[in-house]
Protein backbone atom coordinates (compact mmCIF):
# COMPACT_ATOMS: atom_id res chain seq x y z
CA UNK A 1 0.00 0.00 0.00
CA UNK A 2 2.80 2.43 0.86
CA UNK A 3 4.59 1.31 -2.27
CA UNK A 4 1.53 2.06 -4.40
CA UNK A 5 1.20 5.54 -2.92
CA UNK A 6 4.86 6.39 -3.51
CA UNK A 7 4.96 4.97 -7.00
CA UNK A 8 8.61 3.94 -6.54
CA UNK A 9 10.06 0.81 -4.96
CA UNK A 10 13.57 1.96 -4.09
CA UNK A 11 12.67 4.05 -0.99
CA UNK A 12 10.87 1.06 0.54
CA UNK A 13 13.60 -1.38 -0.46
CA UNK A 14 16.27 0.95 0.95
CA UNK A 15 14.36 1.39 4.24
CA UNK A 16 14.03 -2.39 4.61
CA UNK A 17 17.69 -3.04 3.79
CA UNK A 18 18.94 -0.37 6.20
CA UNK A 19 16.62 -1.80 8.86
CA UNK A 20 18.09 -5.23 8.20
CA UNK A 21 21.59 -3.85 8.87
CA UNK A 22 20.58 -2.75 12.35
CA UNK A 23 18.55 -5.90 12.95
CA UNK A 24 21.47 -8.14 11.98
CA UNK A 25 23.78 -6.18 14.26
CA UNK A 26 21.37 -6.66 17.18
CA UNK A 27 20.77 -10.32 16.34
CA UNK A 28 24.50 -11.08 16.22
CA UNK A 29 24.77 -10.55 19.98
CA UNK A 30 21.24 -11.28 21.17
CA UNK A 31 22.04 -14.24 23.40
CA UNK A 32 19.89 -17.23 24.38
CA UNK A 33 16.48 -15.59 24.87
CA UNK A 34 13.96 -17.56 22.80
CA UNK A 35 11.44 -14.73 22.70
CA UNK A 36 14.01 -12.21 21.48
CA UNK A 37 15.28 -14.73 18.92
CA UNK A 38 11.77 -15.26 17.55
CA UNK A 39 11.12 -11.52 17.45
CA UNK A 40 14.40 -10.69 15.73
CA UNK A 41 14.10 -13.58 13.25
CA UNK A 42 10.67 -12.25 12.27
CA UNK A 43 12.05 -8.73 11.79
CA UNK A 44 14.98 -10.11 9.79
CA UNK A 45 12.66 -12.20 7.64
CA UNK A 46 10.64 -9.13 6.72
CA UNK A 47 13.59 -6.79 6.21
CA UNK A 48 15.66 -9.23 4.15
CA UNK A 49 13.02 -11.20 2.24
CA UNK A 50 10.88 -8.12 1.59
CA UNK A 51 13.36 -6.39 -0.73
CA UNK A 52 14.19 -9.67 -2.46
CA UNK A 53 10.52 -10.39 -3.17
CA UNK A 54 9.89 -6.82 -4.31
CA UNK A 55 12.80 -6.94 -6.73
CA UNK A 56 12.18 -10.40 -8.16
CA UNK A 57 8.39 -10.28 -8.05
CA UNK A 58 8.08 -7.02 -9.92
CA UNK A 59 10.83 -7.42 -12.47
CA UNK A 60 8.40 -8.86 -15.02
CA UNK A 61 6.22 -5.77 -14.70
CA UNK A 62 9.21 -3.49 -15.25
CA UNK A 63 10.43 -5.57 -18.16
CA UNK A 64 7.00 -5.56 -19.72
CA UNK A 65 7.18 -1.78 -19.99
CA UNK A 66 10.46 -1.92 -21.94
CA UNK A 67 9.91 -1.48 -25.70
CA UNK A 68 12.49 -4.15 -26.60
CA UNK A 69 10.70 -6.84 -24.56
CA UNK A 70 7.09 -5.68 -24.88
CA UNK A 71 4.91 -8.58 -25.91
CA UNK A 72 7.76 -11.10 -25.87
CA UNK A 73 6.71 -13.41 -23.04
CA UNK A 74 9.58 -15.83 -23.61
CA UNK A 75 12.21 -13.08 -23.24
CA UNK A 76 10.50 -11.67 -20.14
CA UNK A 77 10.27 -15.06 -18.47
CA UNK A 78 13.91 -15.83 -19.35
CA UNK A 79 15.19 -12.60 -17.81
CA UNK A 80 12.97 -13.01 -14.74
CA UNK A 81 14.23 -16.59 -14.31
CA UNK A 82 17.84 -15.50 -14.64
CA UNK A 83 17.42 -12.82 -11.98
CA UNK A 84 15.61 -15.18 -9.61
CA UNK A 85 18.08 -17.99 -10.34
CA UNK A 86 21.05 -15.72 -9.67
CA UNK A 87 19.63 -14.80 -6.27
CA UNK A 88 18.96 -18.44 -5.45
CA UNK A 89 22.44 -19.49 -6.59
CA UNK A 90 23.97 -16.74 -4.45
CA UNK A 91 22.06 -18.03 -1.44
CA UNK A 92 23.15 -21.60 -2.11
CA UNK A 93 26.80 -20.66 -2.57
CA UNK A 94 26.68 -18.53 0.57
CA UNK A 95 25.75 -21.61 2.60
CA UNK A 96 29.20 -23.06 1.93
CA UNK A 97 30.80 -20.05 3.62
CA UNK A 98 28.64 -20.08 6.76
CA UNK A 99 30.35 -23.09 8.41
CA UNK A 100 33.80 -21.84 7.41
CA UNK A 101 33.17 -18.43 8.98
CA UNK A 102 31.43 -19.95 12.00
CA UNK A 103 34.21 -22.44 12.73
CA UNK A 104 36.96 -19.88 12.21
CA UNK A 105 35.49 -16.79 13.88
CA UNK A 106 32.22 -17.72 15.66
CA UNK A 107 28.52 -17.10 15.00
CA UNK A 108 28.72 -13.37 15.50
CA UNK A 109 30.97 -13.10 12.47
CA UNK A 110 28.45 -15.00 10.34
CA UNK A 111 26.01 -12.19 11.02
CA UNK A 112 28.67 -9.54 10.51
CA UNK A 113 29.32 -11.04 7.07
CA UNK A 114 25.57 -10.77 6.35
CA UNK A 115 25.78 -7.13 7.41
CA UNK A 116 28.58 -6.57 4.92
CA UNK A 117 26.58 -8.22 2.11
CA UNK A 118 23.46 -6.17 2.90
CA UNK A 119 25.56 -3.01 3.05
CA UNK A 120 26.86 -3.79 -0.43
CA UNK A 121 23.24 -4.18 -1.55
CA UNK A 122 22.47 -0.75 -0.10
CA UNK A 123 25.42 0.73 -1.99
CA UNK A 124 24.11 -0.76 -5.24
CA UNK A 125 20.75 0.97 -4.71
CA UNK A 126 21.97 4.40 -3.59
CA UNK A 127 21.77 6.06 -7.02
CA UNK A 128 18.27 4.70 -7.78
CA UNK A 129 17.14 5.64 -4.27
CA UNK A 130 18.43 9.20 -4.70
CA UNK A 131 16.63 9.63 -8.04
CA UNK A 132 13.35 8.14 -6.81
CA UNK A 133 13.43 10.05 -3.53
CA UNK A 134 13.84 13.35 -5.38
CA UNK A 135 10.82 12.50 -7.54
CA UNK A 136 8.74 11.53 -4.50
CA UNK A 137 9.65 14.78 -2.69
CA UNK A 138 8.89 16.86 -5.80
CA UNK A 139 5.51 15.16 -6.16
CA UNK A 140 4.77 15.76 -2.48
CA UNK A 141 5.67 19.45 -2.74
CA UNK A 142 3.65 19.84 -5.91
CA UNK A 143 0.67 18.15 -4.26
CA UNK A 144 0.73 20.75 -1.48
CA UNK A 145 0.26 23.64 -3.94
CA UNK A 146 -2.70 22.19 -5.82
CA UNK A 147 -5.81 24.35 -5.75
CA UNK A 148 -9.17 23.03 -4.58
CA UNK A 149 -10.44 23.02 -8.16
CA UNK A 150 -7.54 20.83 -9.30
CA UNK A 151 -8.15 18.47 -6.37
CA UNK A 152 -11.77 18.06 -7.45
CA UNK A 153 -10.58 17.19 -10.94
CA UNK A 154 -8.14 14.62 -9.58
CA UNK A 155 -10.72 13.09 -7.24
CA UNK A 156 -13.42 12.92 -9.92
CA UNK A 157 -11.76 11.95 -13.20
CA UNK A 158 -15.12 11.89 -14.98
CA UNK A 159 -15.56 15.60 -14.39
CA UNK A 160 -13.89 17.82 -16.91
CA UNK A 161 -12.82 21.39 -16.28
CA UNK A 162 -15.70 22.54 -18.51
CA UNK A 163 -18.24 20.81 -16.26
CA UNK A 164 -16.86 22.47 -13.14
CA UNK A 165 -16.73 25.94 -14.74
CA UNK A 166 -20.44 25.64 -15.76
CA UNK A 167 -21.39 24.73 -12.21
CA UNK A 168 -19.59 27.74 -10.70
UniProtKB/TrEMBL annotation:
Membrane-protein topology: Multi-pass membrane protein
GO CC, any one term: endoplasmic reticulum membrane
Xref: PANTHER family: MAJOR FACILITATOR SUPERFAMILY (MFS) PROFILE DOMAIN-CONTAINING PROTEIN (PTHR43184:SF2), MAJOR FACILITATOR SUPERFAMILY TRANSPORTER 16, ISOFORM B (PTHR43184)
UniProtKB keywords: Membrane, Transmembrane, Transmembrane helix
Transmembrane segments: 12-30, 36-61, 107-126
Subcellular localization, as worded in the UniProt entry: Membrane
Molecular functions per Gene Ontology: transmembrane transporter activity
Annotated protein name in UniProt: Major facilitator superfamily (MFS) profile domain-containing protein
Domain called Major facilitator superfamily (MFS) profile: residue spans: 1-168
Ranges in coiled-coil conformation: none
Amino acid sequence: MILDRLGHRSPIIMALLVSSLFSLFIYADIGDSKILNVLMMTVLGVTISGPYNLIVGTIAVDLGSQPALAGNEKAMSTVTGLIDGTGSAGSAIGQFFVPIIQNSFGWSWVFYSFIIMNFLSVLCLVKRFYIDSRIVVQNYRRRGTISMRQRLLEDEPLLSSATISHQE
